[in-house]
Write a structure and sequence with these properties.
single chain, 2 strands, 116 residues, 48% helix, mainly alpha
Protein backbone atom coordinates (compact mmCIF):
# COMPACT_ATOMS: atom_id res chain seq x y z
CA UNK A 1 0.00 0.00 0.00
CA UNK A 2 2.96 2.30 0.55
CA UNK A 3 3.65 2.49 -3.19
CA UNK A 4 0.04 2.55 -4.41
CA UNK A 5 -1.13 5.89 -5.86
CA UNK A 6 -4.01 5.18 -8.27
CA UNK A 7 -5.47 2.55 -10.58
CA UNK A 8 -3.55 3.57 -13.73
CA UNK A 9 -0.82 0.91 -13.34
CA UNK A 10 -3.43 -1.85 -13.09
CA UNK A 11 -5.48 -1.24 -16.25
CA UNK A 12 -6.29 -4.57 -17.96
CA UNK A 13 -4.68 -6.58 -15.15
CA UNK A 14 -5.81 -9.12 -12.58
CA UNK A 15 -4.87 -7.76 -9.15
CA UNK A 16 -4.28 -9.72 -5.94
CA UNK A 17 -4.36 -7.74 -2.68
CA UNK A 18 -2.64 -9.56 0.20
CA UNK A 19 -4.08 -8.69 3.59
CA UNK A 20 -7.40 -7.37 4.78
CA UNK A 21 -6.54 -4.25 6.73
CA UNK A 22 -8.03 -0.82 6.13
CA UNK A 23 -5.53 0.14 3.41
CA UNK A 24 -5.94 -3.18 1.60
CA UNK A 25 -9.71 -2.84 1.53
CA UNK A 26 -9.58 0.81 0.46
CA UNK A 27 -7.25 -0.06 -2.41
CA UNK A 28 -9.24 -3.14 -3.45
CA UNK A 29 -12.46 -1.11 -3.49
CA UNK A 30 -10.90 1.62 -5.62
CA UNK A 31 -9.49 -0.95 -8.05
CA UNK A 32 -12.78 -2.89 -8.21
CA UNK A 33 -14.69 0.28 -9.06
CA UNK A 34 -12.41 1.04 -12.02
CA UNK A 35 -13.95 -0.61 -15.10
CA UNK A 36 -10.51 -0.78 -16.75
CA UNK A 37 -9.11 -3.15 -14.09
CA UNK A 38 -9.77 -6.76 -15.16
CA UNK A 39 -10.35 -8.31 -11.71
CA UNK A 40 -9.50 -7.82 -8.04
CA UNK A 41 -9.03 -10.54 -5.42
CA UNK A 42 -8.23 -10.18 -1.72
CA UNK A 43 -6.26 -12.86 0.10
CA UNK A 44 -6.31 -13.10 3.90
CA UNK A 45 -4.98 -15.54 6.44
CA UNK A 46 -7.86 -15.32 8.91
CA UNK A 47 -11.44 -14.19 8.79
CA UNK A 48 -12.60 -10.82 10.01
CA UNK A 49 -15.70 -8.73 10.34
CA UNK A 50 -15.92 -5.87 7.90
CA UNK A 51 -17.50 -2.68 9.21
CA UNK A 52 -19.16 -0.91 6.29
CA UNK A 53 -18.47 2.76 5.62
CA UNK A 54 -21.70 3.30 3.67
CA UNK A 55 -25.21 1.88 3.94
CA UNK A 56 -27.15 0.33 1.06
CA UNK A 57 -28.16 3.77 -0.19
CA UNK A 58 -24.57 5.09 -0.23
CA UNK A 59 -24.92 7.23 2.89
CA UNK A 60 -21.97 7.38 5.33
CA UNK A 61 -22.67 4.99 8.21
CA UNK A 62 -20.64 6.90 10.78
CA UNK A 63 -22.57 10.11 10.09
CA UNK A 64 -25.88 8.34 10.58
CA UNK A 65 -24.83 6.43 13.71
CA UNK A 66 -23.51 9.55 15.42
CA UNK A 67 -26.25 11.99 14.43
CA UNK A 68 -28.14 13.68 17.27
CA UNK A 69 -31.48 12.57 15.87
CA UNK A 70 -30.42 8.92 15.63
CA UNK A 71 -29.03 8.96 19.17
CA UNK A 72 -31.97 10.92 20.62
CA UNK A 73 -34.85 8.96 19.10
CA UNK A 74 -33.43 5.43 19.18
CA UNK A 75 -32.32 3.74 22.41
CA UNK A 76 -28.89 2.11 22.66
CA UNK A 77 -30.16 -1.48 22.34
CA UNK A 78 -31.96 -0.63 19.10
CA UNK A 79 -28.89 1.24 17.76
CA UNK A 80 -26.75 -1.82 18.50
CA UNK A 81 -29.30 -4.05 16.76
CA UNK A 82 -29.41 -1.83 13.66
CA UNK A 83 -25.61 -1.64 13.51
CA UNK A 84 -25.31 -5.40 14.01
CA UNK A 85 -27.81 -6.06 11.23
CA UNK A 86 -25.95 -3.74 8.85
CA UNK A 87 -22.64 -5.46 9.61
CA UNK A 88 -24.21 -8.91 9.27
CA UNK A 89 -25.76 -8.09 5.89
CA UNK A 90 -22.51 -6.68 4.49
CA UNK A 91 -20.48 -9.64 5.73
CA UNK A 92 -22.91 -12.18 4.23
CA UNK A 93 -22.04 -10.80 0.82
CA UNK A 94 -18.30 -11.09 1.51
CA UNK A 95 -18.67 -14.64 2.90
CA UNK A 96 -20.50 -15.62 -0.31
CA UNK A 97 -17.26 -14.86 -2.15
CA UNK A 98 -15.02 -16.75 0.28
CA UNK A 99 -14.15 -14.42 3.19
CA UNK A 100 -13.51 -16.72 6.17
CA UNK A 101 -15.57 -16.40 9.33
CA UNK A 102 -14.03 -14.26 12.09
CA UNK A 103 -12.82 -15.57 15.42
CA UNK A 104 -15.30 -16.84 18.00
CA UNK A 105 -15.48 -13.53 19.93
CA UNK A 106 -16.81 -11.67 16.89
CA UNK A 107 -19.28 -14.46 16.10
CA UNK A 108 -20.65 -14.37 19.64
CA UNK A 109 -20.82 -10.55 19.77
CA UNK A 110 -22.54 -10.08 16.41
CA UNK A 111 -24.74 -13.11 17.01
CA UNK A 112 -25.99 -11.54 20.23
CA UNK A 113 -26.63 -8.21 18.52
CA UNK A 114 -28.71 -9.76 15.78
CA UNK A 115 -30.66 -12.10 18.08
CA UNK A 116 -32.10 -9.26 20.19
Amino acid sequence: SHQYRNTSKYVGKNVLIVGIGNSALDISLELAQDPNVKSVMVSCRRGTTIIPTRDGKGNPVDKRLTSRMFNYWINSAMRALLFGRLVQDVNKKFRKYGLPEPGKIFQIFFGLLTDI
